[in-house]
Amino acid sequence: GAVVSQHPSRVICKSGTSVKIECRSLDFQATTMFWYRQFPKQSLMLMATSNEGSKATYEQGVEKDKFLINHASLTLSTLTVTSAHPEDSSFYICSASVWEGTSVDTQYFGPGTRLTVL
Amino acid sequence: AQSVTQPDIHITVSEGASLELRCNYSYGATPYLFWYVQSPGQGLQLLLKYFSGDTLVQGIKGFEAEFKRSQSSFNLRKPSVHWSDAAEYFCAVGALKYSSASKIIFGSGTRLSIRP
Predict the structure, then answer these.
(1) What pLDDT is recorded for position B66?
(2) How far apart (Å, rounded) are the C-alpha atoms in residues B73 and B53?
């Protein structure tokens, strides 16, 4: 399957600072990527849909000014958590949509980024 | 609105025994269904998916799932589990879209433990 990477794998930051997480499609181009958040022992919650060259679409309840998403190229989407606070501590996972010879896409997931805000 | 229910939070089976993980979905149109597996601290790996055709879908690692429209179910099965199958399993449903990305919703997950 397609490979998606995330960087960094884990990050610890102080409250009030901003953190950028990168999501890359390594062997394919992805016009659409997704960002999810996962709390311990819980499911994945979709935060936003990131489309290359256009503004991200955020899910209800997700603060777009807090979670800035940029999809500047067909292989890279970034999520910036601005002015992070301890309640933003979570596991952030991205995915990228791939069309594999069919007319429907499949999402492949990155390994995730563990964010801890002190 | 679409939703996914995984009624079993935690299942323990003996190594070599058969496995069935339950998944029920609610969706008004043609669903696009997935099973993903997540090892601790890792991202998700796609086991299999279904959107049309044969309702019995074969996936990786010896897993299969059967789509039953009348029961709104997409249960995951494996005839003989291995200790390495211990993980969290997520069922997911999306809107079947052609030529545009499908947004998917995840179930709450089922944690699988393997008894030696």
Answers:
(1) 97
(2) 16
Q: How far apart are CA A33 and CA B8, in angstroms?
A: 30
Strands A10-13, B44-50: pairing kind = unpaired
The answer to which of A52-56, B5-9, B34-38, B65-69 has the lowest mean pLDDT is A52-56
Task: Using alpha carbons only, give the angle A96, A25, A117 rounded to the nearest 5 degrees.
Answer: 80
> Residue B90 is nearest to which of A6, A43, A49, comparing CB atoms?
A43
A93 touches B at CB < 8 Å:
yes
- Could you tell me if A118 and A14 are in contact, meaning their C-beta atoms sit under 8 angstroms apart? yes
At residue A99, the pLDDT reads 77
Q: Tens digits of per-residue pLDDT, B48-66?
A: 999 888 899 999 999 999 9
Which residue's entry shows tokens 């086991």?
A: B47
Q: Which residue from A minimizes the CA distance to B43?
A: A111
Q: Which positions in chain B touch A97 (Cβ < 8 Å)?
A: 101-102
Arithmetic mean of pLDDT over chain A: 92
